[in-house]
Amino acid sequence: MKYLRHLITHYPLSCLAIAAIWYLCLFLDVHVHVGHVRAVDKWTHTTMYLGTGLVMWWEYLRQHKKVNRRRVTLLIWLAPIAMGGLLEILQAYCTGGRRSGEWLDFAANSVGSTLAFIIGILVANYCATNKKDAS
Fold first, then answer.
1. 77 CB-near residues (< 8 Å, 6+ apart)
2. What is the pLDDT of residues 57-114, one digit of tens each?
3. Does the pLDDT value for residue 130 go beyond 70?
4. Closest CA to 45 of 23, 17, 25
């Protein structure tokens, strides 16, 4: 319970983004059609996970002076990918047919998380280099 309170107080936007993903994926029946855009739902999945990952990085870098590579790898990269997989399984088996779990959605979630992780590592390295140069 203490850890959950820590997450909510120190990472409120990340928690909000994750809650939004759970709500959108399990409770809304969304069908988006955008003209000539192919695979718009896959782009949506990628964007949701990219945005969430970037918010997680931003809040993490605000809270920590030094990046713990193992922690960010687990929490900012692998945990969202696992969450995406779990959500796809839940969509397939627990939504009464309103939603369907798809492997390509899981792949799109993973791409978004991976892009966010790479961008976050690059930004963290850039910030660390600039801090060393400033001293």
1. 53, 113, 114, 116, 117
2. 999 999 998 999 999 999 999 999 999 999 999 999 988 888 888 999 999 999 999 9
3. yes
4. 25
CA distances from 107 to 66, 71, 79, 84, 93 (A): 30, 23, 14, 9, 19
User: What is the structure's pLDDT at 13?
Assistant: 98
Cβ neighbours of 122 (radius 10 Å)? 10
Compute the C-alpha angle 90/42/102, nearest 5°.
35
Residue 67: φ, ψ to 5°: -85, 125
| Rounded (5°) CA angle 42-47-50 | 125
- Asked if residues 94 and 22 have their Cβ atoms less than 8 Å apart, the reply is no
Among 131, 128, 130, 110, which Cα is nearest to 120's? 128
7: pLDDT strictly greater than 60 = yes
* DSSP state string for 89-115: HHHHHHSTTSS---HHHHHHHHHHHHH
Neighbours of 115 (CB within 10 A): 16
